[in-house]
Prior knowledge:
alpha+beta
Amino acid sequence: xxxxxxxxxxxxxxxxxxxxxxxxxxxxxxxxxxxxxxxxxxxxxxxxxxxxxxxxxxxxxxxxxxxxxx
Length: 70
């Protein structure tokens, strides 16, 4: 993998390398309106578990969007 790719994938590369499923769920906004994400990582072959956890978080918290209170 070219080193240039590591510059934009520092948070996903380790999980791709170890074959762990991961996803990022929007979970709020900073006071400046920038997005904050929750990264959920599971065990190898635990894709369904990661997706269920992400969906459960979204169902309880909702997704903050610009212009909304977080």
